[in-house]
Specification:
Blueprint (H helix, E strand, L loop, with lengths): L1 E3 L2 E3 L2 H5 L2 E2 L8 E2 L1 H8 L18 H5 L36 H5 L3 H4 L1 H5 L3 E7 L8 E3 L3 E4 L10 E2 L7 H8 L11 E7 L3 H6 L2 H27 L16 E2 L2 E10 L5 E7 L6
Parallel strand pairs: 8-12
Antiparallel strand pairs: 1-2, 3-4, 5-9, 5-11, 6-7, 7-9, 10-11, 11-12
Bound molecules: zinc ion.
Zinc ion binds next to α3.
Length: 275
C-alpha cells in the first residue's frame, strides 16, 4: 500500500477486505475502503494513515478511539510550558451593575477585569446539569443555561488546521454544535496561548482532566452535595464529569477563547477515562 504521484494505490482486494483493528481493546471491524470514502485526506501527511491502514482502524491510529489508552499514541513533540494558572485576584467579581448583559452571555463585559489581567476563558459543557438562568459562582465562574452563549462569530485558528492534534480533535466528532445543546461553565484561566495551540492531543486531554479535577475540588463537589439527590445507585442523580458531551459521553471537550479576541480553540477527545 503506497501513495505515489498518482495518489493512493491499494488494490481492490485489499481495499474491501474486512479487517479487524489490531488494538486489543478496540478490535473493530473495518475495511480500508470505508475510510477512503470518508477520510481520504487522513491517508496523506501529517496523519499518514496509509502506514497504519492495514492493521489499525483510523480512530485508533489517530488516538481518538473510545477504547484507546491515551498514553500510547504518537505525538508531535513540541513542548513548551503551558503555564496553566488559575487567577488569584477575584475582588472585582462580579459587577452586579452589569447583570443583564452578563446574563445575556456577553463574556467581554462579564470578564472585563480578568481579560485586563491577561486571562483567557474556557467554556466547558456540563452534562446532566440544568439551570434556567446564568448562575454566578465565586472566583469568576458562571454556569450558563443551554443556548446561553453565542458562538457564531468565533474564529477558529486556520493556520493550525493541519496540526495532528486538531485532526484528532475533529475526529472525536465533538463540534461547536455540542456546545449549544448543553449547559456551559465559563471560567478564566491563565496559560500560554501559543503553547496551547501546539500541544499534542494527549496533553490536551490531560488539560481537560486537570481543569475538571480543579473545578470539582473548588466547587462542584459542594454543588453536588447541596443540590443533588443521592440514590442507591451511585452517580444516578449526579452530573457527569466536566466536559462530557451529552450525545457521546465517552467524549469530552473544552473551548478556549483567546484573551480579548474572538479567536477560539476547541479541544476534544476521549478524556473521561479514569486511570
Ligand atoms: Zn481500533
Amino acid at each position: 500500500m503506497k501513495i505515489d504521484k498518482n495518489g493512493i494505490f491499494i488494490d481492490d482486494y485489499n481495499k474491501n477486505l474486512e479487517r479487524r483493528c489490531v488494538d486489543s481493546s478496540c478490535q473493530k471491524k473495518y475495511s480500508i475502503n470505508e475510510y477512503l470514502e470518508g477520510s481520504e485526506g487522513d491517508f496523506y501527511p501529517p496523519v499518514n494513515y496509509i502506514d497504519g491502514c492495514s492493521k489499525s482502524c483510523l480512530e485508533c491510529w489517530l488516538g481518538v478511539s473510545e477504547f484507546m489508552d491515551n498514553d500510547t499514541q504518537v505525538e508531535n513533540d513540541v513542548s513548551y510550558e503551558l503555564g496553566l494558572e488559575f487567577p488569584t485576584e477575584h475582588g472585582h467579581w462580579y459587577d452586579s451593575h452589569k447583570f443583564d448583559e452578563i446574563g445575556r452571555g456577553n463574556l467581554e463585559v462579564a470578564y472585563e477585569k480578568y481579560i485586563k489581567d491577561d486571562c483567557h476563558l474556557i467554556v466547558i459543557p456540563l452534562s446532566r446539569v440544568s439551570v434556567d438562568r446564568a448562575i454566578y459562582l465565586p472566583c469568576g465562574l458562571i454556569v450558563y443555561p443551554v443556548g446561553g452563549l453565542d458562538f457564531s462569530d468565533l474564529e477558529f485558528n486556520s493556520e493550525e488546521d493541519c496540526e495532528l492534534s486538531s485532526i484528532q480533535s475533529l475526529s472525536s466528532g465533538v463540534t461547536i454544535d455540542s456546545f449549544t445543546t448543553q449547559a456551559l461553565l465559563v471560567l478564566p484561566i491563565k496559560l500560554n496561548w501559543n503553547s496551547l495551540l501546539f500541544k499534542g492531543h494527549s496533553e490536551h486531554m490531560e488539560l481537560i482532566r486537570t481543569i475538571s479535577e480543579m473545578f470539582d475540588a473548588m466547587f462542584f463537589n459542594f454543588l453536588k452535595y447541596e443540590n443533588c439527590q443521592l440514590t442507591y445507585i451511585p452517580d444516578e442523580g449526579l452530573p457527569n464529569l466536566l466536559g462530557q458531551i451529552n450525545s457521546n459521553p465517552m467524549m469530552a471537550g473544552a473551548l478556549f477563547l483567546k484573551n480579548g479576541t474572538r479567536k477560539a480553540k476547541l479541544i476534544s477527545g476521549a478524556a473521561t477515562h479514569t486511570e
